[in-house]
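Supplementary Methods. Inverse-folding protocol.

Structures were first reduced to a discrete structure-token string of length 376. This string, shown here, constituted the complete conditioning input.
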């Protein structure tokens, strides 16, 4: 069968949803399906055998950042997606199904309905907007990346999603020897290296992480922030003002393929989101690399980080709680090692791509019948 994954950012950004699209497409192509990715024209590409990539122009959401739209994130993202829709609709053609990964692409489901092309909406976040409830009725089925996100979609749309956890490429994300040169470049003279991957957005929690680091000057740790985004300059200023600029390293964007090298040199991987996080992909990838992880109490991390088993949790936004957790974990090598081993086991059991693709196929089969399982 012919499957189209439609998502603007797959070829424009590095991120959890983008990785999911690439890896699911790869797994479906391996199963013998014809797979196409329709995305925005951008700098990100991957060599995935059997997957055709079609890109088109669009107007970046930042172009809409004026007046009342400056803080209207969802409306700006919707506007960005709508600028891609006319040409994107043409590129989609008439496949057996279209798989979308953001609610902003629900208008495509409405447009494809007269063609008889079913659209499967896979929830990875909470980017709702006026009118999305109506548009969701045009989707053939809802999938969700986590139990938390499924509850959110159920409340929003009154429909029952199927939970399909995000997948991890356990062949690429695996334990490996640390690169001493990379470790030295990032850690300097610090004994401990704390890695915080992710886009620099306000809700990711970088600001209070820097605050927490400043309260534990006696712990010889350096924080390495992997990623880029709108809050970077503000965070750099904050670190300087608190006197910890030499203990916080901003690397900018690191490619997904390079991430295992960075996990391998870390002592702890941190997720500190206060909102919006619906799974915690980078923490699952860190666990696959047998790294100890520390996550906030934000519920989006619940399926990945199990308190005291695969990692530790702390109250989201609570600076003293985070500082205490950092101190405890960084000074307990045996605890971190136990978490790392248990984390890899959980990834193997739940997040391997064969299992994820099987669950996605099950949703296709339920809606489309036997033809969904027929490769082309």
């Amino acid at each position: 069968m012919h499957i189209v994954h439609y998502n603007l950012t797959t070829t424009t950004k590095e991120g959890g949803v983008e990785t999911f699209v690439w890896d699911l497409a790869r797994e479906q192509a391996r199963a013998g399906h014809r797979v196409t990715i329709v995305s925005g024209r951008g700098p990100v590409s991957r060599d995935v055998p059997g997957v055709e990539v079609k890109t088109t122009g669009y107007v970046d959401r930042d172009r809409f950042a004026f007046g009342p739209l400056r803080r209207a994130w969802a409306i700006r993202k919707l506007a960005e997606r709508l600028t891609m829709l006319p040409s994107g609709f043409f590129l989609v053609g008439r496949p057996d199904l279209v798989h979308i990964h953001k609610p902003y692409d629900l208008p495509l489901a409405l447009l494809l309905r007269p063609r008889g092309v079913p659209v499967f909406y896979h929830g990875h976040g909470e980017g709702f907007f006026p009118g999305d409830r109506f548009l969701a009725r045009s989707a053939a089925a809802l999938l969700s990346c986590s139990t938390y996100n499924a509850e959110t979609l159920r409340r929003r749309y009154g429909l029952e999603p199927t939970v399909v956890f995000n997948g991890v490429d356990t062949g690429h994300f695996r334990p490996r020897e640390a690169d001493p040169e990379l470790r030295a470049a990032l850690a300097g003279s610090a004994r401990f290296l704390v890695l915080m991957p992710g886009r620099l957005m306000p809700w990711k929690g970088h600001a209070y992480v820097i605050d927490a680091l400043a309260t534990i000057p006696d712990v010889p740790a350096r924080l390495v922030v992997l990623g880029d985004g709108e809050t970077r300059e503000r965070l750099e200023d904050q670190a300087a003002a608190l006197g910890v600029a030499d203990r916080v390293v901003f690397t900018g964007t690191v490619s997904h393929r390079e991430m295992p090298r960075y996990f391998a040199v870390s002592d702890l991987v941190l997720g500190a989101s206060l909102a919006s996080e619906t799974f915690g992909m980078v923490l699952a990838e860190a666990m696959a690399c047998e790294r100890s992880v520390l996550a906030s109490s934000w519920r989006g991390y619940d399926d990945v980080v199990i308190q005291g088993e695969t990692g530790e949790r702390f109250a989201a936004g609570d600076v003293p709680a985070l500082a205490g957790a950092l101190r405890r974990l960084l000074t307990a090598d045996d605890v971190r090692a136990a978490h790392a081993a248990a984390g890899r086991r959980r990834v193997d059991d739940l997040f391997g791509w064969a299992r994820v693709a099987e669950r996605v196929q099950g949703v296709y089969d339920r809606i489309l019948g036997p033809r969904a399982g027929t490769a082309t």
